[in-house]
Amino acid sequence: MMYVSWRKSLTEYLHSCYFQGQVYYSLHVLHEDIDNPDQRISQDVERFCRQLSSMASKLIISPFTLAYYTYQCFHSTGWLGPVSIFGYFIIGTIVNKILMSPIVSKLVQQEKLEGDFRFKHMQIRVNAETVAFYRAGRVEHMRTDRRLQSLLQTQRELMCKELWLYIGINTFDYLGSILSYVVIAIPIFSGVYSDLSPTELIALVSKNAFVSIYLIGCFSQLIDLSSTITDVAGYTHRIGELQETLLSLGRKKNDNYSEAKASWDLDNSHSGEDPVPRDTAFLLERVTLSVPSSGKQLIKDLSLRISQGNSVMIVGNTGTGKTSLLRALGGLWESTRGSIKMLTCFGPRGVVFLPQRPFFTDGSLREQVIYPLKEIYPASGSADDERIVRFLELVGLTDLLARAGGLDEPVDWNWCDILSPGEMQRLSFARLFYLQPKYAVLDEATSALTEDVEHELYHVCLQLGMTLISVGHRASLEKVHWGGSTPCCGGKTRGR
Ligand SMILES: Nc1ncnc2c1ncn2[C@@H]1O[C@H](COP(=O)(O)OP(=O)(O)OP(=O)(O)O)[C@@H](O)[C@H]1O
Question: What PANTHER family does the record tag this protein with (predicted)?
Answer without folding.
Answer: ATP-BINDING CASSETTE, SUB-FAMILY D MEMBER (PTHR11384), LYSOSOMAL COBALAMIN TRANSPORTER ABCD4 (PTHR11384:SF59)
